[in-house]
Amino acid sequence: MSRSGIHAPTLADAGQTPVSALSGVGPKVAEKLTARGLATIGDLWLHLPRQYEDRTHVTPIRHLRGGVPAQIEGTVEAVEKGFRRRPMLRVAISDGSGGTLVLRFFHFRAAQVAQLAVGTRLCCFGTPRPGQQGLEIVHPSYRVLDDDAMTVLDDRLDPVYPAIEGVGPQMLRRLVGQALDRLPGDAALELLPGDALESLGMPTLRDALLYVHRPPSDADMAMLASGRHPAQRRLVLEEMLAHHLSLRRQRIALQAHRAPALRPGTLAAALQASLPFALTGAQSRVHRELLIDLARRKPMLRLVQGDVGSGKTVVAALAAAAAIDGGRQAALMAPTELLAEQHAQNLRAWFEPLGVRVAWLAGKVTGRARAAVLADIASGATPLVVGTHALMQASVAFHDLALAIVDEQHRFGVHQRLALRDKGAGGDRVPHQLVMTATPIPRTLAMSAYADLDVSAIDELPPGRTPVQTVVLSSERRPALIERIRHACADGRQAYWVCTLIDDSDEVVAQAAQTTFEQLSAALPELRVALVHGRMKPAAKQDAMRAFKQGAVDLLVATTVIEVGVDVPNASLMVIENAERLGLAQLHQLRGRVGRGSAASSCVLLYQAPLSRMARERLDTMRTTSDGFVIAEKDLALRGPGELLGTRQTGLAEFRLADLARDADLLPDVHRIGDAMLVAQPALADRVVSRWIGSATRYAAA
Ligand code: ADP
Ligand code: MG
Predict the structure, then answer these.
(1) For the chain, how many structural domains are there in total?
(2) Is the peptide bond before 610 cis (omega within 30 degrees of 0)?
(3) Domain carrying residue 494
(4) Which family does the similarity line name (predicted)?
(5) What is the largest CA-CA distance in the chain?
(6) Does 176 fall in a domain?
């Protein structure tokens, strides 16, 4: 029988059964599981072990090796409870093989201490590491053995699942087991063409799931640990395929719409002629790419990525000019008021001398002023509109929006981008869309994450910029650094001092910035110091930024609110506190605030010792390169794409299994299989998407 849609109901029944159908799952457990995205039996199939415990044999203590997980059987010889710096429990066990092993606990209950009395026999599992006195295992899983009981050996490897709060590991293992018992046969489950799987040497979905959840005792552990076992690759392939198909379908849906063909005319020519600089080669190339898209009757959906300072705004302005030349409107939306205001200033400086009015709309534009702006947008009197999220409000109606530009789009969700686009929709017509980002996306990721967009890169900075010199300093050197700021500012330079905390709460970060502001103001009484943080009123924030921009402030103490797009060419020194806590992309964004003028600039990354290996590598990367694309590749390798892109940027659920840094080599197969499927079996493609992405497909209507 063919594998096309016929079996859909069977699959739907098996995989989409709610977890509450499993025995032992009451409303409480169901709620805990659902909170972690495990709502159905199909979700449990895809909740893969993060590691395995080999309980097929017991290792004598004498044979233990550091770093190699093992199951051990032994008798408690000594127990020591300490509370010096923090509570700690050390339990020494031996097994007659001539060795002693220390079990170490940092969290423990009184009942546990009572249980682990001298003479107790234990079976435990964990990874030994060298400790003060030979090998030790921190927080092993263990079980007390009856006096003469033997450890029961398993005949396969025990999966260890990512923990779910409120659902114990044993329970979780049991539930996944029950879910697997309900796995339908290949005929109902398999969606990928058999010949493709065969040529890739990959098992069917059913076999892959059974293998990954219940590997046989002779499984290649090293390969499983690397995530590159054919069974794992099989699952990753289908997940990546689902994402690819979902994005392709969005693109196909968009292409079914029409858009106004826009051609540059006298305004575009006048704008280009009036610019005080010549476009860089990269800007010209991207400009041409945009004009080709805009001249079509199909809606453009193009991402322009370019490092901070690469000059994206002027390219967007030239595209807007083409829309205005066609007698229509263009809108530019930015994620913060500060940034939107800066765009408004730039666009006014460029367009108003040419007789084009620029409307400004933000939350703080209220009352009569707002009514007037809205009226001008609705009548078409202002062909160019700049603003914040306020542009997406229901009260904003355009006369004829032909081009929607979204800056720093990763700050917006996809639906917000679409909300602006919908302002220009009418009948089957939608406006062209241009999205801009300064977060460079590595090529592999762009191919996968943006299969619905065309991507252009401005990969060249305007001439005359001097690279930012980056130094990494321990926070103990703070006093010397303060002296350095004193001297730099005495020379007429300006500086940023960026306060960061791992804490997401605006309030805590604002408090830390306030404290730093007070300390620096006291230490540098001759300087004009100002403060900007997310908890300030927008007007106060603007005032401080404006003062800094105009040179009335020497030192700006700020939280990461200054991250996006702010342009102060005279600022040539930046200090970033707790730099070890930030990701590469964010550090790069922040550093991009300096080095915008012609003065030599520097960036000081302050860290709190000790540094983790990852943090050291990140800071080293920052020190040795300023190329956003190189940094993005490194970021991808260091922490994976989940954080880099996140759901907000792609508009999709994050990958459950795939890791693009590891699995990018599957992309050509994903594209080949996916594109063939869209042509020959679109119904099958739908099922792949809904199996893996489910609710996120509501964007498919985009
Ligand atoms: P970003 O890509 O970060 O948004 P901007 O568009 O803000 O960069 O441009 C940064 C600065 O560079 C602005 O002051 C802009 O006027 C200037 N600029 C843009 N293009 C050029 C160019 N080709 N030559 C010189 N300066 C340029
Ligand atoms: Mg910008």
Answers:
(1) 3
(2) yes
(3) 468-625
(4) Belongs to the helicase family. RecG subfamily.
(5) 94
(6) no
Nearest Cα residue to 74 out of 170, 151, 156, 139: 151
Q: Which of 463, 464, 408, 439 lies closest to 628 in space, CA to CA?
A: 439
3-state secondary structure of 558: strand
424 and 517 assigned to the same domain: no
Can you tell me the distance from the alpha carbon of 368 to that of 533, in angstroms, rounded to the nearest whole number? 30
Q: Which residues of 478-517 are buried (b: 16+ CB within 10 A; e: fewer)?
A: beebbebbbebbeeebbbbbbbbbeeeeeeebbbbbeebb
Ligand 1 mean position to 490 CA, how many Å? 28
CA 204 – CA 192 distance, rounded (Å)? 8
Q: Pocket residues for ligand 1 (CB within 6 Å)?
A: 277, 279-280, 283, 306, 308-314, 438, 462, 565, 567
* Nearest ligand, CA 308: 1
Question: pLDDT tens digits, residue range 184-211?
Answer: 999 889 999 999 999 999 999 999 999 9
Q: Coil, strand, or helix at residue 148?
A: coil
Domain assignment present for 423: yes
Distance 382 CA to ligand 2 centre (A): 22
End-to-end CA distance of the chain: 34
Q: Are 384 and 378 in contact (CB under 8 A)?
A: no
Write down the pTM of the prediction: 0.69
Give a yes or no: residue 231 inside a domain.
no
Residues in the chain: 702
Q: Are residues 567 and 419 in the same domain?
A: no
The pairing of beta strand 329-333 with beta strand 384-387: parallel
Mutate to test the pocket of ligand 1, among 277, 287, 409 (most ligand atoms within 8 A of CB): 277
DSSP 18: B
CA of 340 to the centre of ligand 2 (A): 10
64-97 pLDDT per residue, tens: 998 888 999 999 999 988 877 677 889 999 998 8
CA torsion 273-278-284-287 (nearest 10°) is: -40
- Phi/psi at 519 (5° precision): -60, -45
Average pLDDT over residues 408-435: 73
